[in-house]
């Protein structure tokens, strides 16, 4: 029984009209718990107070013993592997976040989507496709995936085509460049996953997986995501030419097939290039090109490629219903202070303290007043600003005298606006013939 006094609401008055015998419960100080929950849900003031108290009680720093983050036992004990559910088996979905209505809710929702993918949450993204090029490699993003998987005690299987050394001693390293066939590679991945409940399989180059190993993406996806209910992260280099030896007209290009199967698509961009593109867009200039797209002889990679300040992620999240949500994020390099130093039993890395991935609009450099001021000054052509405005042979602006003369011009329909709103009048265009008008009387006789 609940002893909390709740003010009268509309639902209370409705119940009193239909069930007068229930007045003792509504007007008294003792009501059933289920009825108190309903009254709290329908009372805006109480609901707002309860939500504010709940938010105030939560801390921004995640505890190092957080059961929602760390998996103490990831060993598979046998039996049927249950498929991942969207709400972790919870049937009550009343607390699921609805479509954001305000800007603050939208930003929290966007960060939550990216954090669930990076944090390897259940059913967040069975197959994450990462697109990169020479201007911005996906190495920082892959490292963040591995750091968070190690902190959560998730088994990591790293299928490498471009590296000869394991990124971490706790990672199961499979050298795919060592003469392994496609069938043997699938067997190696399965052997590395069968003793664990949750696993993360990372392929650092899907292009070589298709071109050299002749492996079907459907077979790899069915093994990792369907059979073992684990997560798959694959990197595809966009600056590599597709394989032209296979001339099957009914086979789609590998990149199109990957985009069709992926549940999350993340494109990596250099932070310096994004800032340059923003400055060009603010001044209505064409977006600059970098690297191979410049078309300059001998230029493969720009000097400001792979910015060390962080990486920009252009992500697309696909829901089961088919609706896609897009967002741009900024991921800085992780530091040792982002994770707890004290380790739990069986833990390789400490628990993540606080989520540090943000939306791109929240980045102080991207939205700094100094950068915006320089862009506006360059667009206005102020003295001392570095501008690349195209010069023309005629003046596009107006002088003060011309502006004053333009304001004195009376348009032909100006008098019609005075009679608007009268009954039966409607919209009319009034035109008074001037003395300077050229009127030919012979035209009426023709």
UniProtKB/TrEMBL annotation:
<comment type="pathway">
    <text>tRNA modification; 5-methoxycarbonylmethyl-2-thiouridine-tRNA biosynthesis.</text>
</comment>
<protein>
    <recommendedName>
        <fullName>Elongator complex protein 5</fullName>
    </recommendedName>
</protein>
<dbReference type="GO" id="GO:0002098">
    <property type="term" value="P:tRNA wobble uridine modification"/>
</dbReference>
<comment type="similarity">
    <text>Belongs to the ELP5 family.</text>
</comment>
<dbReference type="GO" id="GO:0033588">
    <property type="term" value="C:elongator holoenzyme complex"/>
</dbReference>
<dbReference type="InterPro" id="IPR027417">
    <property type="entry name" value="P-loop_NTPase"/>
</dbReference>
<dbReference type="InterPro" id="IPR019519">
    <property type="entry name" value="Elp5"/>
</dbReference>
<keyword id="KW-0819">tRNA processing</keyword>
<keyword id="KW-0963">Cytoplasm</keyword>
<keyword id="KW-0539">Nucleus</keyword>
<dbReference type="Pfam" id="PF10483">
    <property type="entry name" value="Elong_Iki1"/>
</dbReference>
<dbReference type="GO" id="GO:0005829">
    <property type="term" value="C:cytosol"/>
</dbReference>
<dbReference type="GO" id="GO:0000049">
    <property type="term" value="F:tRNA binding"/>
</dbReference>
<dbReference type="GO" id="GO:0005634">
    <property type="term" value="C:nucleus"/>
</dbReference>
